[in-house]
Amino acid sequence: MKKVKFITAIYNNLFGTEFGGRQSRRDHYKWSLISIMRMTDADFTCYCSKSEYQELYDFFYVKNNISQNQLELKQFELSNNLNFNYIENYKNFEEIKKSDRCFEIQYNKFFWLLNEDFSYDYYFWIDAGFCHCGLLPDKYLTYCDVTRGYFDSYFFDNEFLQKMIDKTGEQITIFTKDNLRNYWSDTVPQNYYNQYDSTLHVIGGLFGGKKEIMKWYVNEFQNSLKKITEETKRLYSEEHYMSLIYVNNRDKFKTYTFDIWWHETNGPNGLADNYFVINKSFYKSLEDIKL
């Protein structure tokens, strides 16, 4: 088995601050990460704030007996972001206080890799909250209790991990969402593309590959961010840059494509009977890995 490291982060107290972030995710992130760590053949590093470190320490190591060899908690203040000056210069502070996304965390999905000694064979980013009932249908959830059940799943296991490694090979695994029939997001200006194409949007929740190609990916991300931020005088999300890099370097990526986030047990009322036939749910792209 190749040595695999997942990098993630939990920052729960950002909404309403100068950083921005989702509300009411405390239990979500923690229980979701517990489920994700059923990939026991991998190790994890989770970044967090100094103010939340003790709470997370007690939850993972004391209450749930997670090994410190499998999960390393690392304190990191978001103002130490490599691109903090860009963010400070172009961030709308009043808008960001109401936002559920944090630029510092988005950009650090790449730059926390720079803290690694690259002693592992593969490196992946995974959002701590990636395992929940909004993404996975009921058949993959245990609903073991009222607090944990919405996030408790055996889907992310060592079989999933091994299949993902095998299929990643020499490329970078990414997930791309249909952005044509089921529009999701705009992108960076067209002139930055070798050949403009916005039909697919790369998501930032799970991606990674061999350490050598991940070093290349970090460098491409930084170069794109620096150039585009300086020239456009605005901030774009990490997914905008990831989409650009994908279109300009398709051969470097192993892609899993989906159409919609909804699945059969959480779709809104009134959908056509064949809606989930003509549209591929995100979880099915995860299933593709296990096939």
- Give the tally of structural domains: 1
What order do the SSEs take from the amino end to the carboxyl end, as H and E? EHEHEHHHEHEEEHHEHH
Terminal-residue CA separation: 19 Å
- Give the overall form: globular
Count of helix runs = 10
Which parts are unreliable, with pLDDT below 50 for 5 consecutive residues or more?
none
Strand percent estimate: 5-15%
Largest sheet: 8 strands, mixed
The averaged pLDDT comes out at 94
How many individual β-strands?
A: 8
Helix proportion range = 25-40%
Given helix and strand content, the structural type is alpha/beta
CATH architecture: Alpha-Beta Complex
What is the CATH class designation? Answer: Alpha Beta
Cα-atom radius of gyration: 19 Å
CATH fold assignment: Spore Coat Polysaccharide Biosynthesis Protein SpsA, Chain A
Question: How does this model look, in words?
Answer:
There is one protein chain. The protein has 291 residues and is α/β, with parallel strands linked by helices. It has a single domain, classed as Spore Coat Polysaccharide Biosynthesis Protein SpsA, Chain A (Alpha-Beta Complex). Helix 2 links the parallel strand 2 and strand 3.
Supply database-style keywords.
single chain; 291 residues; alpha/beta; globular
What is the secondary structure topology, with strand pairs?
Blueprint: E1 4-9, H1 26-36, E2 43-48, H2 53-63, E3 71-75, H3 84-90, H4 93-97, H5 103-111, E4 122-126, H6 158-168, E5 172-178, E6 200-202, E7 206-210, H7 211-232, H8 238-248, E8 253-258, H9 275-278, H10 282-290
Parallel strand pairs: 1-2, 1-4, 2-3, 5-8
Antiparallel strand pairs: 4-7, 5-6, 5-7
